[in-house]
Amino acid sequence: MATKKAAKKKPAAKKAVKKVAKKAAAKKAVKKVAKKAAAKKTVKKAAKKATARKAVKKTAKKAVRKVAKKAAAKKTAKKAVKKTAKKAVRKVAKKAAAKKTAKKAVRKVAKKATAKKATKKTAKKAVKKTAKKAVRKVAKKAAAKKATARKAPAKKAAAKKAVKKVAKRKPAVRKKKAAPVALPATPAPLI
Question: How many CA atoms lie within 13 A of 146 on its CB side?
Answer without folding.
Answer: 6
